Structures are given as structure tokens and as C-alpha cells.
TrEMBL record:
The keyword Transit peptide applies. GO terms for molecular function: ATPase inhibitor activity. Keywords: Coiled coil, Mitochondrion, Transit peptide. The lineage of its organism: Eukaryota, Metazoa, Ecdysozoa, Arthropoda, Hexapoda. It is found in: Mitochondrion. Pfam families: IATP. Belongs to the ATPase inhibitor family. It comes from the Eukaryota. InterPro entries: ATPase_inhibitor_mt (IPR007648). Residues 67-108 form a coiled coil. This is ATP synthase F1 subunit epsilon. GO terms for cellular component: mitochondrion.
């Protein structure tokens, strides 16, 4: 189970942009119904210039959406890093206080 979980995480996190691009290009975009048998709507099913333009708009939408998601993820990770750095600072201060107390106790003995 761990192998499958780790393999899945590795494949997702390795290069998410590459994976999403490959998934969206199952055939020639805008050339009609896809390989899966489902249609992409009446404009895309018709093919031609309008189908290709619609497919390009759809690709651009998902590309921008993915960029937004990656940007938000990056910002969230930066926030987490800051939080943990602050915790490290507080813990180091607590360690120093406790070490000073031990030193003070040793001096009294």
C-alpha cells in the first residue's frame, strides 16, 4: 500500500504541468469528438476553425487555472515555512531559558 501511495505522490508531484498537458491532448484538439466517445460540445464536435478556437480557449482557461492553483500552493507553503521558522525561534528561546536555569541552579550548588 505504501508503495502505491508513494508512487502516486511521486508521479503527481514530479511535474504537474506536464501531466495535465498530456491528459488534455487525447487527439488533435478541436478536430471533432474525442477518442473517448464523448463529445466536447456542439462546436468542438463540428471541428474546423471554430472547434480549434474553442479547444484553444479551453486549454488557455485550464492553463491559467492551473497557474493560479500553483501560485496559491506556493503562497501557502511560504506561509507554512514562516510559521515553522517562528516556532523554531520560540523553541530555541525556550531551550536557552531552560539551559540558563540549569546553569543558575548549578552555580547555587
Amino acid at each position: 500500500m505504501n508503495f502505491i501511495r508513494n508512487a502516486r505522490l511521486t508521479s503527481i508531484s514530479a511535474n504537474p504541468v506536464k501531466h495535465l498537458r498530456l491528459m488534455s491532448q487525447l487527439g488533435d484538439l478541436g478536430s471533432g469528438a474525442g477518442k473517448g466517445g464523448g463529445g466536447g460540445g456542439s462546436i468542438r464536435e463540428a471541428g474546423g476553425a471554430f472547434g480549434k478556437a474553442e479547444a484553444a480557449k479551453e486549454e488557455e482557461y485550464f492553463y491559467r487555472k492551473q497557474r493560479e492553483q500553483l501560485s496559491k500552493l506556493k503562497d501557502d507553503l511560504k506561509d507554512e515555512i514562516s510559521f515553522h521558522e517562528e516556532q523554531i525561534k520560540r523553541h530555541q528561546e525556550a531551550i536557552n531559558r531552560h539551559q540558563q536555569r540549569v546553569t543558575d541552579i548549578d552555580k547555587k550548588e
